[in-house]
Specification:
The chain is mainly alpha-helical and 759 residues long. Helices cover 46% and strands 3% of the residues.
Length: 759
């Protein structure tokens, strides 16, 4: 079948498959819905209220059935229908129903309720009220698979290999095929594999010259040399930094303030991540520097290295505090705890903010032990210039400030005695001095956004309410995990960083290994990358996960070592086409008997379009640019990211919400995407540039079409594709055409699924 794909493919309708609630939906209920119900509703609408003869309106909200059944005025909610039911109306204080009666809840809480109901009102509670438990058994909790130390399993011996066993990855995967009777897909052809690994490792398609060089190299290690070249490319860090920036919920402003605060130098954290990944910084050091680089004696004297990574939390939530100050601080602490625990540890500690975790061995005290490390810390900016440069700047600024004070004094005196010529002359003299000093000011210092200080600790908030404080929660690490420093007043951010990055921690290496696996294969060994707890999925290949985690640490926590283990495996190099006999055994391909065909993220797709049209600016680093700029040609990783108003192109193509850590991206198909491809100025500009790129004097149409295919798809056209192209190109133009025939054809190729997807 022809691989050529016209625009009609883009008009195919999307298909939504029904499925049960996933871990993210359950987590949303536990962190955003249940705490609100407990704090604001159970007092009057629960079994306990009924037992005390204080039940109001016949409405029980402490069970799933009670919530759906409703009370005297009808159902409280109708899952999937936000316009029905009494709950949202009462929360909005619409009509006669005003709940809670003492005052309306914050808009953000109501929006969470709306989102929850719109998404189907997933509710893991039973139809009877849960009885209270005596607490969490940490000893029993440590028996769960992810809290057990990673072991070094024996690599399976494959008696009758169906693929070349290149490394232990192949052996572990093959062993599961043998268990299930699966036959793997054939190996991908060399062109497909080259395009796959280019997009995976540097986020850009191979050039025709790179393809020719690889195809001409018939040596056994030809592909390994390509991998080494790509890992050494400065573009590798750009591609893989974007993955981590999703986890770090990187953005350059705040969404929840009345005046949106721009973080004008946020991009330095992004550049720090790019540089760290290009340098193959050991992952344990990568972790420590982002949590407590300012406190690490071994961080060195380079201020960019020492402070740049602190943007992980320095660019976190910063809420408006003129009203409800304590609540705003509580929300900021929740952002720190949630991003840190899910990002580095793959556990949902934030679900213990209002009560002991319902599913994992995380007591409520442990949440506040972590939050207390950040309670009272500051979000600030730190200069990263050499100390001598900082001193020169500060001295010059001090002179300007002193002169401005003299100017202000002279203005007041001259105003009081308007007829005093001496004072007027003095004012003129001082004003000239201020202007001269301002002109002589050295350039502004480069700054990075950091979190600084060590929190003094805090008390537990009963039911998560800052106004109702309980016992002191000593600063420390979640007790289900090993930590070499006892909880207490002296526990610092550096202690936290060391505990997370410790080889003894059973989670840290497993979590990052799983993330890298998911970013290469389309799905993690644990398919819930930020939830290794009871609500998360179990690993499909637990022995492989442990083998990779153990050897990752043994190999110096090297991410580039990890990339090589994955992409040099025969499993990575399989074809993406299905094997019919396997579909009934493993229809979801969880055992990786073929490659997963994936749609490119918006960054890879936009960068590929610019690369193919020869308009891509490949310069590295620097301030962010706006995607709305007509001549925006830089890689998308350098685009401005806003929490307040995310760029429309990014939103349209499933860029994650930068207000929260993102473990993976959703993939939607909506008509607006197709309209962008057909009608946007950006696509038209790339089509014109692409057509112009191959329009060389004396070049035959067949040669031009072939050049376009090689640039866009790393392959020549088939005979049918060539015939179709020439037939279209020779059609007479129409009076209303805005693009020439060649430009129209270029747009067809740029809009094709073959360019938008990775096989």
């Amino acid at each position: 079948m022809s691989r050529f794909c016209l625009l009609l493919v883009l008009l195919a309708p999307s298909i939504a498959l029904a499925s049960g609630p996933d871990a993210a939906q359950l987590e949303f209920f536990e962190s955003k819905i249940r705490p609100v119900l407990i704090e604001h509703c159970y007092k009057c609408h629960s079994a306990a209220a009924a037992q005390a003869k204080k039940l109001k309106g016949g409405l029980l909200l402490d069970t799933r059935a009670g919530l759906r059944r409703g009370g005297d005025t009808g159902p409280a909610i109708v899952p999937g229908k936000t316009s029905e039911g009494t709950l949202l109306k009462s929360l909005h204080h619409a009509g006669d129903l005003h709940m809670p009666p003492k005052g309306k809840l914050p808009d953000a809480v109501i929006r969470n309720m709306e989102r929850w109901i719109a998404d189907g009102a997933v509710d893991p509670r039973g139809d009877t009220a849960a009885k209270s438990t005596a607490g969490i058994d940490l000893v029993q909790g440590r028996q769960f698979w992810s809290f057990q130390p990673a072991m070094t399993p024996a690599v399976p011996t494959i008696a009758h290999p169906q693929i070349v066993i290149r490394n232990p990855v192949d052996a572990f995967i093959h062993a599961r095929w043998d268990e299930k009777g699966l036959k793997p897909a054939r190996a991908a052809d060399r062109v497909t594999l080259l395009r796959r690994v280019h997009l995976d490792l540097i986020g850009l398609p191979p050039t025709p010259e790179e393809a020719d060089a690889y195809l001409a190299d018939q040596s056994a290690d030809a592909f390994a040399r390509v991998v080494d070249r790509l890992l050494a490319s400065p573009h590798h860090g750009e591609k893989w930094a974007r993955h981590w920036l999703d986890v770090a919920r990187y953005a350059e402003d705040q969404a929840h303030t009345f005046g949106v605060t721009q973080k004008s130098q946020a991009w330095r954290y992004r550049d720090w991540v790019v540089a760290a990944l290009n340098a193959d910084m050991p992952y344990d050091r990568f972790v420590r520097l982002q949590i407590a680089g300012d406190m690490m004696p071994e961080a060195g004297d380079d201020p960019f290295l020492k402070y740049g990574g602190l943007g992980f939390n320095g660019l976190g939530a910063d809420y408006y505090k003129n009203t409800a100050r304590e609540q705003a601080i509580a929300e900021e602490l929740d952002d720190r705890v949630d991003t840190l625990s899910r990002g580095f540890l793959g556990i949902t500690v934030a679900c213990a903010r209002c009560h002991d975790h319902k599913f994992d061995p995380i007591p409520q005290q442990d949440y506040y032990s972590l939050a207390g490390i950040y309670m009272g810390t500051n979000l600030s900016e730190v200069p990263i210039a050499p100390p001598a440069t900082v001193k020169v700047f500060n001295d010059a600024r001090k002179k300007v400030q002193e002169a401005e004070e003299r100017q202000k004094k002279a203005q007041n005196e001259a105003k009081a005695k308007a007829d005093d010529k001496g004072l007027a002359a003095r004012l003129k003299e001082v004003t000239a001095e201020v202007a001269a000093l301002q002109k002589a000011m050295p350039p502004a210092l480069p700054m990075v956004h950091v979190v600084s200080g060590n929190g003094p600790g805090m008390k537990l908030y009963i039911r998560g309410n800052p106004a109702t404080k309980g016992d002191e929660a000593p600063k420390g690490f979640p007790r289900v995990l090993p930590c070499g420093v006892p909880a207490g007043a002296k526990f610092s951010r550096l202690d936290l960083a060391n505990a997370i990055a410790s080889p003894a921690n059973p989670l840290t290496a497993r979590v990052i290994v799983n993330r890298v696996w998911a970013w290469h294969f389309g799905k993690g060994i644990v398919s819930t990358p930020d939830n290794f707890g009871a609500l998360g999925d179990r690993p499909t290949h637990p022995e492989l996960l442990d083998w990779l985690a153990v050897h990752f640490v043994k190999n110096g926590w090297s991410l580039k070592w990890l990339h090589r283990q994955m992409v040099l495996s025969s499993v990575y190099q399989l074809d993406s086409r299905p094997v019919a006999a396997n579909d009934s055994i493993d229809p979801g391909n969880s055992l990786l008997w073929r490659a997963n065909r994936r749609r490119l993220d918006i960054e890879l797709w936009r960068d590929s379009l610019l690369s193919v049209s020869a308009k891509l600016d490949r310069s590295l680093g620097g301030p962010a640019f706006s995607l709305r700029e007509p001549e925006a040609k830089r890689r998308t990783v350098y685009a401005r990211i806003s929490r307040h108003e995310l760029d429309g192109l990014l939103r349209l193509f499933d860029f994650p919400d930068a207000n929260v850590t993102a473990a993976r991206r959703s993939v939607t198909t909506v008509p607006q995407q197709q309209l962008f491809v057909l009608n946007s100025e950006f696509m038209a500009a790339q089509a014109k540039a692409f057509a112009a790129r191959v329009n060389k004097p004396g070049t035959a149409d067949t040669e031009r079409v072939t050049a376009m295919y090689r640039l866009a798809f790393t392959r020549p056209p088939g005979s049918a594709e060539l015939e179709l192209a020439l037939g279209f190109l020779h059609l007479p133009p129409r009076p209303d055409d805005k693009l020439s025939r060649w430009e129209q054809y270029a747009q067809v190729l740029l809009a094709s699924n073959e360019l938008m997807f990775m096989d």
